[in-house]
Structure formats: structure tokens, C-alpha cells
Amino acid sequence: MNSETTFKFKTLFEEQKRALLCTRKLASEDFRLQEEDLADEMDVTSSELETSMKMRLRNREALFLKKIDQALDKIREGSFGTCDDCGDDIDLRRLEARPTATLCVSCKEGQERSEHAHIDGRKPKSLGTRIRLA
Ligand SMILES: [Zn+2]
Fold first, then answer.
1. Which of 25, 80, 88, 102 could anchor a disulfide with 74, C-beta 3.0 to 4.6 Å?
2. Helix (H) or strand (E) holding 74
3. Cα 100 to ligand 1 centre (Å)
């Protein structure tokens, strides 16, 4: 990957990270207000629901942030855009669609296939195989 393209992704990741940290700060301020309101409202069910939704959102944000940091690390190391698995270059169109991708298309497909195989493992016949393997 040429340095111009790498720089483009670096800028993109830094912007995404900044935006993410910013919304996170706003969300936590909002969260604090909600807790203060709780005593008056007594609407525990909906606020619990909201809390769990926020937690889920926060987990997803944290995961995304981690991926961005990993991508920025790779840019620093000069390994950005190469597949974690086979070391081949990841297709640029794939990276543009999903900048935090760490696997090339064929490795990703292989991974998805093994995930599907895992689901098939619930069938009684393959379950037996799985137990024997374990
Ligand atoms: Zn690969």
C-alpha cells in the first residue's frame, strides 16, 4: 500500500476515533443525568432497559475503538492492509468498505465457513464427532 493511501486511512481512523470519544463523553454526561432523575421518576423498568441498551452500545463502541487503535498500530508498524492470517494484501475496495478489516477476502470466507460448520455441529451426528474430538 502506498504512503498516500495509508495516510488517507490514518486520517480516517483518527477522525473516527475523535468522533467516537466525543459521543462517548456526551453519552456519559447524559447517563449521569439519568441517574439523578431516577429518584423522581420511579420508572425503573424503562430506565433499566435504557441502561442495558447504553451498556451494549458502549461495548460496541469500545470494540470499535479497539479495532481503530489496532489499525493505527498497524499503520505505525507499516503492516496495515495486509491479512493477519496469510500476510497477503487486503483488497483496497474491501478496506474502503470496511477499514478495520484485518483479514483478506479468502481468509474471511474461510473463517465464516468454519463458523457455519460450528452451527452445523448442533446436529446430533456431528455433535457425536465433536464430542469424540474433544
Ligand atoms: Zn488472508
1. 80
2. helix 44-77
3. 14
Q: 81 C-alpha vs ligand 1 centroid, how far in Å?
A: 11
- 10 with 29, same domain: the answer is yes
Question: How far is it, in rounded angstroms, from Cα 68 to Cα 73?
Answer: 9
pLDDT per position as a tens digit, 29-47: 766 666 656 555 556 667 7
Q: How many domains does the chain have?
A: 2
Residues 10 and 20 both lie in one domain: yes
Residues 113, 92 share a domain:
no
pTM over 0.85: no
Q: Phi, psi (5° rounding) for residue 89?
A: -70, 135
Residue 69 alpha carbon to ligand 1 centre in Å: 21
Distance 90 CA to ligand 1 centre (A): 7
Give the model confidence (pLDDT) of 58-75 as tens digits: 888 899 999 999 999 999
Tell me how far the alpha carbon of residue 37 lies from the centroid of ligand 1, in angstroms. 51
